Amino acid sequence: MSLQAKPVSHSRTTLTELMIPAYANFGGKIHGGTLLSLMDKVAYACSAKHAGQYCVTVSVDGVNFRQPVEVGELVSLMASVNYVGRTSLVVGIKVIAENVKVGTVKHTNTSYFTMVAKDDLDRPTEVPPLLLETPDDVRRFLEAMKRKELRAAYSEHFDNARLRMLHNENIDQLTGERCQLTDELKKNL
Ligand SMILES: CC(C)(COP(=O)(O)OP(=O)(O)OC[C@H]1O[C@@H](n2cnc3c(N)ncnc32)[C@H](O)[C@@H]1OP(=O)(O)O)[C@@H](O)C(=O)NCCC(=O)NCCS
């Protein structure tokens, strides 16, 4: 039986949390890991709503924190399903940090979580197709397809390069880099 498509709006989720001192490092800035944990939570909520199943995080793309987040700011994570495969979903998450007193809003990052729906036996299970309702829905779906294609090409390219790195013929590439080899290591190469 084929599953009925669900619109992006069905699972769109926003999580807002106050940044408290316990989330900060010694410099008073919020730990990147705190934000990652919140992103993981909202990705779960959004993907589980679409799938109607328990979902697990498989990979994360595009985690680049552009600006620091401070204690006292309100962080909002806006999540929506951008793409679905057979059992996987890509959830796009835009993170903003708001200083309510000053009235500033910073866009700290946009990241993409790939989630997989699991059945009761912990096996990947089919998710409903995505009903695209707006030009933005279409753009995000197409972008996710491109990201998936580029990631597969990158993995293949890197795997090939890694095999070549196992041989010491690339050692010259370290010249000019900020690293040193121990005398012991030089003898053994
Ligand atoms: C992700 C997982 C289910 C894949 O299992 P598998 O037996 O390889 O299953 P499949 O090959 O059928 O892949 C299932 C889906 O995951 C996708 N997938 C697998 N690895 C992926 C990766 N590294 N990045 C993106 N998607 C991936 C596949 O493309 C497939 O998607 P599709 O059905 O939409 O085409 C399995 O590796 C797993 O359970 N990992 C642990 C996840 C987890 O517990 N996360 C919590 C953090 S500890």
TrEMBL record:
<dbReference type="InterPro" id="IPR033120">
    <property type="entry name" value="HOTDOG_ACOT"/>
</dbReference>
<keyword id="KW-0378">Hydrolase</keyword>
<dbReference type="GO" id="GO:0052816">
    <property type="term" value="F:long-chain fatty acyl-CoA hydrolase activity"/>
</dbReference>
<dbReference type="InterPro" id="IPR006683">
    <property type="entry name" value="Thioestr_dom"/>
</dbReference>
<feature type="domain" description="HotDog ACOT-type">
    <location>
        <begin position="9"/>
        <end position="121"/>
    </location>
</feature>
<dbReference type="InterPro" id="IPR029069">
    <property type="entry name" value="HotDog_dom_sf"/>
</dbReference>
<protein>
    <submittedName>
        <fullName>Acyl-CoA thioesterase</fullName>
    </submittedName>
</protein>
<dbReference type="Pfam" id="PF03061">
    <property type="entry name" value="4HBT"/>
</dbReference>
<dbReference type="GO" id="GO:0005829">
    <property type="term" value="C:cytosol"/>
</dbReference>
<dbReference type="GO" id="GO:0006637">
    <property type="term" value="P:acyl-CoA metabolic process"/>
</dbReference>
<comment type="similarity">
    <text>Belongs to the acyl coenzyme A hydrolase family.</text>
</comment>
<dbReference type="InterPro" id="IPR040170">
    <property type="entry name" value="Cytosol_ACT"/>
</dbReference>
